Amino acid sequence: MPTAPAVPPAPGHAELGELAAGIDGELVALRRTLHRHPELAGQERRTAALVAGRLRAAGLTVTTGVGGHGVVAVLDRAGEGPTVAYRADMDAVPADEEPAEGFSSRVPGAAHLCGHDLHVAIGVGIARVLARVRERLGGRVVFVFQPAEETLAGARAMIEDGVLDRTRPREIHALHCGPLPVGAFAVMPGFGHPGLDRFTIDVPGPGAEAGGRRLRAMVDGLSTTTPPRTPEDRARLVEDLTTPDGPLARFVLAGSSLAPAPGGVRVSAWLRAWPDSRYSGIRDAVRRAVESAPGARVTFAGEPFPSMVCSPELSEAAAAHLREAYGPDAVTVLHASFPFAGEDFGLFLRRVPGAMYFLGVADPASGVNGAPHAPDFVADERAIRVGVQAMAGFLSSRLAAQP
Prior knowledge:
four-stranded antiparallel beta sheet; globular
């Protein structure tokens, strides 16, 4: 009877680290190129072309123009096996960057203040590393480089363009920059990011200005939390996020603006809430407040955008893998959702089991805060190599996991 061919051993943490180290300089250079030339949601042509070129050169099968400027790259091995997916977002924030580094944004009104440039570089790095060991993988990896995350439009566009139907991943994963030290991670089993509700309130008549100010104050007063402004605030936020049934187990974050409108004024408002079940009650409260203002009318912008909720099982699997690779203290478990940003990755998670993990990009000793969307956001580029090594190992382990 012929002997079955030996199955090559899966790549180990140290080997993946050596492969990641070998391309680290190229990935840092890619990140800096993207940082200098940020592209807003729906405009990611240059970014998509850079990504596609590097992935084709690594031997992946690449499709462009998916859901706009989305890029999908498939890494196949020789034999059969499951499919897992990895998503990275590509767009920049509509803001000006405080020029603190030699590779600061050269595009007025656009800046990578959310770390998507690192996300792209890490995604490319994971693909390149796994391509080097493809014959030792237990299946297929699909890389989804998504446009228009900041406008919550890109995930829906890619899904409607058939990305999940064509690739049929068993699960999907993602990293996001976080204000943790380099080498640290956080998982969010059963939590993630809140959704978003938007509405306008039109107030007519001679008393419109006063009525608009009163209704705007009502909207802003819905907030139960405020964004961190100081290092002490950030430390308190981390403590709140890691406290089971703590102050962020339920929250509302609201904002508004007041502007003239034909015949009166308009209050434009948004709010994020956790859990999603709170939106119905909040809408009822807004309607009651508007009814008290003569002639005022509220218009909601469709149904609230849903929250991102991470799979508890896959979050715990990631935590176990990362603790084994980086030590028992490398992973923090969050028991609440981060209130100050949304994530349309949640739309993928409503179709496919998956999770997002925070990657530490801060260096407190040198003042690198690692806080996405902060006007002074700076990331420690050592995190790129960490992210590549960590996720290359985790994805390969998921290919070997039983369904």
